[in-house]
Design brief:
The structure is a homodimer of 396-residue chains. Chain A contains 15 helices and 12 strands. The first copy, chain A, has 396 residues and is of the alpha/beta class. In chain A, the strands form 2 sheets. A 6-stranded parallel sheet of chain A has the order 2-1-3-4-5-11, sandwiched between helices. In chain A, strands 7-6-8-9-10-12 form a 6-stranded mixed sheet, with helices on both faces. Strand 2 of chain A pairs antiparallel with strand 2 of chain B, so a sheet runs across the interface. Chain A binds a DNA duplex (30 and 30 nucleotides) through helix 2 and helix 4.
DNA sequence: GGCGACTACTATAGCGCTCAAGTAGAAGAC
DNA sequence: GTCTTCTACTTGAGCGCTATAGTAGTCGCC
């Protein structure tokens, strides 16, 4: 009963294995040509509402879904977004951020029937090469570029390609490409002001590797806010990773005028730093306060729990997904003769549009002693403990 | 100079935007037809070695790469592997395992020019539906299925589809499908024997959610090895996640005859348990030893560092990638009329083939006091500290 | 020295879709 | 009533590849 009425077209099928029902079946059933079906399912004008409804109904009935390959070959979008990671798999495995970020990306992309292609490469050149090939092969409709550097060769490369590409990171240094970023200046301000409010006047910032855009951003903002609040701010480069941070913190506390507060670039670094302090018998937060730019289950579960910036990498990924989908949409529209839906001017798209994500300060006991009293059984709840010690805070 | 010599075929090009050089260009340059080029680049017989070399050379010269869409449409493999995750993005973000596992997958797949499609869904039905659609649309060549359950509805569904599919988890409960798994029985043996060797006689196992295949596997093995060694083993279900583990451990140590050693299902759980003990003033490993089934940077950096099973999720992913690629290859061969390369019998493939990954015990100070002396600055090295305390161990 | 078997290709028909160009039929304008 | 304009389609040509059937040319062999 779900087979087409036949008797008109010959039994051309029979190759079996895989695809069965095609656009032709739907067309035959609806008494139109395949072109009409195409217009109908793609929501384009050219068919009456009645016919469109009929076609869609039949498509649903026959469980038909257009073949992505055929679509792509014929020039339609391939429904795929690409992301390249220029880091060894081993390092990625240790990165809480990427797992969460890509999970957020996936979630939104999947819901729109897009898929995410990921690739791990060795170098920036290989990454650029991958972008070229992906677009040349029409393997992706757009790119999400991560790990923005200060003088990033990928930016001009992507600009030259002229295809939808979204930069994660900024503001600044992303050329004419749109970007989504966490406002690191604000994040830094939240952290420093929180520590200053608690009376700290010697604050150290232990940074990861230079060259990354966000690192520079934080440096600058850190010094500015320290100056503003009359605190002595010092910068230290430790490289990302636990070892560097541990060494750096060890040196700091062994110094003549050790800082009373230390801000570290990641959770992993902050935990390593905290362990060094604890092994040296330094009380946290009594003698030295600790805060991190990254919140994660580790931060929550550590004793004392770490004050951190919650930037919800999952949400970050979701935002990025929405943005790149918009870009692909715009590109599609622009190339189809000036915009099918809205009459937006193509030239207007030239502006390097940005989207920021608001950072949020999560105050815990590693900086604020008033937050130190909660028993673990309450603190490790599945939900983020923004209410620990009753002194939670959100962005200003 | 890189444009074809033309003068023969008309200037049919001009649509621009994207793909430029096609198989026809290569064919024209080489003085053969596109079919010959196809045979050459796909390593199939039918062209002389000389011609093949010439064609490949020209292809390289012109930077030509076959269009995946066109290939797929014409019936070739789409060079894509799919993986569906039926968990919320938020949970995935907290999961160290999946980030690392998929990084390993990616790495190998990328190197063979395959891509990995990931999708996040809500339920097992949605997951099965995705498999159906992916294969029907020819969006993937094969599937990697994770999170094997005891009575898993996805197994019969995938068996029915009859396409390449690899189960992560086992042994057992994966029907006729091939699988790659960590040998949880051996892992359990390593953990229990290590603790028994240290003189523990009351050992508790705090397990995650029932229903997962590996949980059942561990339960069984745990009781068996405990019995073998004359130790009292008790099972406790806490659910995955920190909170459940914390509660469970709190109850355990408050009991009349508290265990002297606790094995927990994951790092997160073990850390939560350790914190509970530390807050209760219980010495680790003096009064209670702690061990975990999962190694991660957290385990390494905790004080005391956690004894754990290192199963290298990255390597796990790599193995899975190799296996699913093999399966796809076999499927290809089988469907092309009995095998182009090797004369393997198709019926032979029916055997449910397995591949195991050897677990490895990493002894640290949470169980063995002799490993407790290293300063943090050495312990948090970027490399896994299999040598901490000089008492490292590998699988037996 | 004509037949079969093999090699090394060619010719051509799709795969399932999209898109530009074309057309029948109705509606409106004068 | 003829001409234009609009809607709602149809027609047909690809997109770039693969696969199957077919065909020259070579070789061996009694």
């Amino acid at each position: 009963m779900s087979t087409p009425s036949t008797s008109s077209s010959p039994a051309r099928r029979g190759s079996g294995r895989g695809q069965r029902v095609t656009i032709a079946d739907i067309a035959a059933r609806a008494g139109v040509t395949s072109a009409a079906v195409s217009l109908a399912v793609n929501g384009r004008p050219g068919v009456s509402d009645a016919t469109r409804a009929r076609i869609l109904e039949i498509a649903r009935e026959l469980h038909w879904e257009p073949s992505p390959s055929a679509r792509a070959l014929a020039g339609a979008p391939v429904l795929s977004v690409g992301m390249v990671l220029a880091r060894p798999a081993e390092v990625l495995g240790n990165e809480a951020f990427f797992g969460a970020f890509s999970a957020g990306l996936q979630e939104v992309l999947s819901s729109r029937d897009y898929s995410l292609q990921m690739k791990i490469v060795e170098s920036a050149e290989a990454e650029i090469d991958t972008y070229r090939r992906w677009f040349a092969q029409r393997r992706v409709d757009g790119i999400v570029m991560v790990d923005l550097q200060l003088e990033d060769p990928r930016i001009p490369a992507l600009e030259e390609l002229g295809r939808p590409a979204l930069v994660i990171g900024g503001p600044g240094h992303h050329g004419t490409l749109p970007s989504v970023y966490v406002d690191d200046a604000l994040a830094t301000r939240l952290l420093v002001e929180h520590l200053a409010d608690l009376g700290h006047t010697r604050i150290a910032r232990v940074a990861g590797t230079r060259g990354y855009h966000h690192t520079a951003q934080r440096d600058e903002s850190f010094l500015a806010v320290c100056a503003e609040r009359g605190a002595t701010g010092t910068l230290h480069e430790a490289g990302f990773g636990a070892l560097g941070a541990a060494r750096c913190v060890a040196e700091l506390v062994a110094g003549e005028q050790p800082p009373t507060a230390i801000i570290l670039d990641s959770d992993e670094m902050a935990l390593a730093g905290a362990h060094v302090l604890q092994e040296s018998g330094v009380d946290i937060p009594g003698q030295v306060a600790i805060a991190s730019y990254e919140d994660s289950p580790l931060a929550r579960m550590h004793r004392p729990p770490l004050t951190a910036i919650g930037r919800s990498a999952v949400e970050y990924g979701r935002r990025a997904a929405h943005r790149i989908l918009e870009l692909i949409e715009e590109d599609r529209g622009a190339h189809r003769g000036g915009g099918a839906a809205d009459g937006r001017d193509a030239a207007e798209d030239a502006r390097p549009e940005l989207r920021a994500i608001e950072p949020e300060l999560i105050i815990r006991a590693s900086s604020d002693p008033r937050a130190a009293t909660d028993p673990l059984l309450l603190a490790v709840d599945g939900d983020p403990d923004r209410t620990v010690g009753g002194s939670s805070a959100t962005q200003g």
